Amino acid sequence: LIIDGGSLTALATAIAIKADVLQVTTKSSGSNPYHIGILGVKGEDGVAGHDGEDYPHAANGRNAGVPSPGICTGASSGGSDSSGVNGTSGSNGSKAGDGVPNFPCSIEIDGISSDSNILYFFTQSGLGGVGGVGGHGGTGQQGGMGGHGCSSGCEGTNGGHAGDGGDGGLGGDGANGNPITISFPGGANRNKLSVTSDSALPGQGGAYGKGGAEGIGGHGGHGSSDGKSGSTGSFGSDGKKGAEGERTGSAGNINYNWIG
Predict the structure, then answer these.
(1) Nearest to 81 by CA among 60, 55, 64, 63
(2) How many whole angstroms separate alpha carbon 256 and alpha carbon 260?
(3) What is the pTM of this model?
(4) Nearest to 178 by CA among 126, 255, 101
(5) Residues 10-56 pLDDT 10s
């Protein structure tokens, strides 16, 4: 087996490597910090929640009827309409998938070339996925404008409250690795092998969704005395950040068989 500036990576794949003689011709392993990597696969990230629904401007109140142009006697008052509708809350992000473990692996090397460089071996099981982002809250509906009156306008209606943001999804758990067997020449050749094992960390929780913007109150209708404007709705509350996955996956146990 000749390794000349590259690396071999097995992702959640059972693999057996057997070589009569190993020669690592260069210290460089390309873009990876190892020559042979036995790895799991990161869990899928959670799906983002849906944003809350916005609503268009509420209907305005009707204007007062005027019997004769410029004469208010007998005129009706301006009308009001309903207050703005509240924006809906964003939905929560979904839980992320757990990591996928590395599969069992066997490496058997009978001999090493005298001029070989060090063989760098790395193993890590699958990391947990990141939780889904919470959906943003919907914007509150703007209140309707009060109808114009001849002598006094009608009051505007209140704006709708904003929807709350959704919570972030839970992070996935790291996976425990499967065992690995390495058969390698013993004695003076042991210093030709460097092995690194890392734990599989749980995934981060998803970011929270932000609360929606408040609906603005409708303006009062105009008249010789204008109606009052409606009240502005309240902002929506932000959701909560998702919790990190609960479990860190341990690296697969490595069993050494020193030959000779």
Answers:
(1) 60
(2) 13
(3) 0.80
(4) 101
(5) 999 999 999 999 999 876 667 888 999 999 999 999 999 999 988 77
